[in-house]
User: What shape does this take?
Amino acid sequence: MKKVCITVKKIASYPDLMEEYENPIEHACSMKLGQTFIANGWARPDGFCGSAWDTVSPFVMTLAYGGENIYDGWMKNPKSAMISCNDGFRPVSFLLEALDEDAD
Assistant: This one.
């Protein structure tokens, strides 16, 4: 099984949707642009959002076990995937890349 690097590539925000539909939240997301995490199997990396992990973990595991060309090759690097979390108010896009080193 390979380690997988998860990089925060884009953070969006939709204040109009928040204003209309969301209850006020003091702190909803702590992701930072360019932040990286190393996934080692099913264990969620320290500091990684639980809700985002629920979304990206199946893709992380596919790459960790050698899967390639997710969604019929839409990524230039076949050992990668671009996946967004499921927050409709402030989605974060993550680049997932299988590393050459094995997980512990």
